[in-house]
Amino acid sequence: MKSNQELQLDVQNSIKWEPLLNAAEIGVTAKDGIVSLTGVVDSYAKKMEAENAAKKVVGVRALVENIEVKFPSSWSKTNIEIANEVLNALLSNWIIPKEKVTIKVEDGWVTLEGELPWNYQKEAAHKAVNYLTGVKGITNNIKIMSETSDKLEKKDVEDAINRSWSVDDRNINVTVSDTTVTLKGTVNSWYQREEAGRIAWNTPGIQLVENDLVVDY
Fold first, then answer.
1. CA distance 29 to 5
2. How many of the other CB atoms lie within 10 Å of CB of 86?
3. What pLDDT, on the 0 to 100 scale, is given for residue 182?
4. Second label for 103, Cα 20 to 30 Å away, from 33, 130, 136, 205?
């Protein structure tokens, strides 16, 4: 297991490696696998890049993210301007079904709502807004309402996770209840935790994934 100093340095270097980020903007502390990020950035995209860079580091068990988004005065936009840009970004993305997502903008914070048949569409809606100037944060409240009536089968989810070369499924326990899949157990990286959840979300008929996997190195 890495020492706190080793983990802190690895996360700092991971953030520094990202082209969007200036390492001096982000403060990193680490203790017993819990990494905290602080600082100020000038876009929501940079905030997400810093978070994703930290998650990729082996040894990170949990993440506390306190990065603030502040724009130069010349970049400021009204909520109406942001709302128009968000709507245009959603409409221009062919993955997202038209007129299925509604938005609310308050002080630069965007809330996405509505119902979509697949989780990858929900994620696409979030990504479409990430790089818009003036967006301080995103709350994704879109619900997944599958269009198929196929019954969820536990074995289908287990087989799908097992097929992935990047996920060690020996300590993953899958349970299925109606349209919900729950993942419990341990994996040895944050990437594996998120990948197992992503695979589970691809199951036809699913409406919710409860990802309770614990990262244990």
1. 9
2. 23
3. 96
4. 205
In which domain, by residue range, is 100 found? 73-144
Task: Report the alpha-carbon distance of residue 123 to residue 131 in Å, rounded.
Answer: 14
Q: Is 149 part of a structural domain of the chain?
A: no
The string of DSSP letters for 85-103 reads: HHHHHHHT-TTSPTT-EEE
Q: Half-sphere exposure (CA, 13 Å, Cβ side) for 57?
A: 31
Burial of 19 (0-12, 13-18, 19+ CB in 10 A): exposed
- Indicate if 64 and 89 belong to the same structural domain: no
Residues 94 and 129 in one domain: yes
Give the predicted TM-score (pTM) of the model: 0.81
Beta-strand relationship, 62-69 and 34-41: parallel
Residue (of 138, 217, 172) closest to 199 by Cα position: 172
Which tokens go with 29?
């502390």
Q: Are 44 and 135 in contact (CB under 8 A)?
A: yes
Candidate ranges 59-73, 84-98, 138-152; pick with highest mean pLDDT? 84-98
Supply 125's token pair.
């809606």
Same domain, 179 and 118: no
The CATH code of the domain that includes 46 is 3.30.1340.30
The CA–CA distances, whole Å, from 13 to 16, 19, 22, 24, 102 equal: 5, 12, 11, 11, 38
Instruction: Give the count of domains, the chain.
Output: 3
Residue 141 CB burial class (10 angstroms; 0-12, 13-18, ≥19): exposed
